[in-house]
C-alpha cells in the first residue's frame, strides 16, 4: 500500500501549530482582558514581536506580576484581530474572529477612546467581478449604499489595524495593514468606472487627512497609497472632479497638495513607455 506524504512548508506548519494553541489556549501563561472578554495567550508569542507587551510582562509593572493586562479602553474587534495576528500572521476582514475568547456576558461595544468606530459586517469581502470597461465614460449607475459602505469599512479597518499596531509597537502588523490598504486602494482605482469604487476612495480622504486623525504624520504610507490611486483614477475618470465630496476633500490643505502631485505624476506616466496605456485616450 502506498502512502501519500503531504508536505507542509515550515512557515505554514509553524502558523498551523500556533493557531491550534490560539484556539485551545493550551500552555497559555498570560491573560488579556477587553470589554468583558478574556483571551488566553502565550507570552513567548506575543512579547517576542511587541516591545510594548514585552516591557509590560517582563518589566517591573503590575502586569508582570499578575500576568494579566486590561485593554478595555480599546476597540474589542480590533483587539481580537490584533491578538490572533500574533499567531496566524494575518487578520480577518469580515466576520469577527472570536478565537479563544471567553465571554463574561458583557454586551460588545465598538466605542473606543483611541480608535474611530467601526461596525462589523458579514459580507466585507464581497467584491464586484466586473471587468474594466475601457470604453466606459464613468457614468455607471449609482452604486448601492451597502456596496460603498463595505469598501469604506475595509479601508477603515486597515487604517485602524495600522493604528493599533503603532500603539502597541507591532511593526509587522503595521506592514500587513499597510499592504492590505494599498491592495484595496489599487483594486478600487483599477475599477474606476464603478462609482462604488471611486466613492469609497473619496470617502477615505477625511479619515486620513482630518486634523483629528490618529495616523501619525511620520507614518504617511497610507496617505501615499490613497493619493497615488486617486490620482490615477482622476486621470481615467476626469468627471469626478465635479463630485461634491471630492470638492469638500480639497478643503484639507495637505490633501490638496498631495493629490496635485499625484495627478501630475499620473499625467506624466500617461505618455511614458512604462505606462499601461489606459489613460492615453483621455481627452484633456
Biggest beta sheet attributes = 4 strands, mixed
Q: Give the DSSP E fraction (strand runs of 2 or more residues).
A: 5-15%
Determine Rg (CA atoms, Å).
22 Å
Question: Mean pLDDT, as a whole number?
Answer: 77
Which outline best applies?
A: globular
Distance between the termini: 71 Å
Report on this model:
The chain is mostly helical and 284 residues long. Helices cover 51% and strands 5% of the residues. The protein is built from 11 helices and 4 strands. The chain has helices spanning 10-24, 43-47, 51-58, 62-66, 76-88, 145-167, 171-190, 195-209, 221-236, 244-249, 253-270, and strands at residues 30-34, 37-41, 68-70, 102-103. Strands 3-1-2-4 form a 4-stranded mixed beta sheet. Strand 1 and strand 2 form a beta hairpin. Helix 7 runs antiparallel to helix 8. The longest helix is centred in the middle third of the chain and has 23 residues, at 145-167. The model is unreliable at 95-99, 101-141 and 272-284 (pLDDT under 50).
Please write out the topology:
Elements: H1 10-24, E1 30-34, E2 37-41, H2 43-47, H3 51-58, H4 62-66, E3 68-70, H5 76-88, E4 102-103, H6 145-167, H7 171-190, H8 195-209, H9 221-236, H10 244-249, H11 253-270
Parallel strand pairs: 1-3
Antiparallel strand pairs: 1-2, 2-4
What is this structure, in a nutshell?
With 284 residues, the chain is mainly alpha-helical. Helix content is 51%, strand content 5%.
Q: Which terms summarize this structure?
A:
single chain; 284 residues; four-stranded mixed beta sheet; mainly alpha; globular; disordered C terminus
Amino acid at each position: 500500500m502506498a502512502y501519500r506524504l503531504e508536505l507542509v512548508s515550515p512557515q505554514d506548519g509553524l502558523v498551523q501549530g500556533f493557531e491550534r494553541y490560539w484556539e485551545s489556549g493550551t500552555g497559555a501563561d498570560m491573560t488579556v482582558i477587553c470589554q468583558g472578554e478574556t483571551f488566553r495567550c502565550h507570552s513567548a508569542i506575543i512579547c517576542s514581536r511587541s516591545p510594548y507587551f514585552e516591557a509590560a510582562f517582563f518589566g517591573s509593572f503590575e502586569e508582570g506580576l499578575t500576568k494579566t493586562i486590561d485593554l478595555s479602553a480599546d476597540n474589542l474587534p480590533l483587539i481580537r484581530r490584533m491578538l490572533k495576528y500574533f499567531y496566524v500572521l494575518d487578520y480577518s476582514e469580515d466576520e469577527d474572529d472570536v478565537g479563544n475568547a471567553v465571554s463574561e456576558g458583557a454586551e460588545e461595544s465598538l466605542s473606543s477612546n483611541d480608535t474611530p468606530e467601526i461596525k462589523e459586517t458579514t459580507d466585507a469581502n464581497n467584491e464586484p467581478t466586473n471587468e474594466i470597461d475601457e470604453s466606459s465614460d464613468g457614468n455607471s449607475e449609482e452604486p448601492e449604499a451597502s456596496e460603498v459602505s463595505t469598501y469604506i469599512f475595509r479601508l477603515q479597518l486597515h487604517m485602524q489595524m495600522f493604528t493599533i499596531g503603532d500603539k502597541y509597537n507591532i511593526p509587522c502588523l503595521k506592514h500587513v495593514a499597510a499592504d492590505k490598504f494599498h491592495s484595496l486602494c489599487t483594486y478600487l482605482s483599477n475599477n474606476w468606472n464603478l462609482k462604488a469604487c471611486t466613492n469609497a476612495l473619496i470617502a477615505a480622504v477625511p479619515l486620513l487627512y482630518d486634523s483629528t486623525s490618529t495616523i501619525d504624520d511620520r507614518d504617511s504610507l497610507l496617505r501615499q497609497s490613497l493619493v497615488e490611486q486617486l490620482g490615477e483614477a482622476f486621470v481615467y475618470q476626469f468627471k469626478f472632479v465635479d463630485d461634491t465630496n471630492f470638492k469638500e476633500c480639497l478643503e484639507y490643505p495637505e490633501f490638496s497638495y498631495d493629490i496635485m502631485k499625484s495627478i501630475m505624476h499620473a499625467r506624466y506616466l500617461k505618455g511614458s513607455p512604462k505606462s499601461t496605456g489606459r489613460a492615453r485616450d483621455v481627452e484633456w
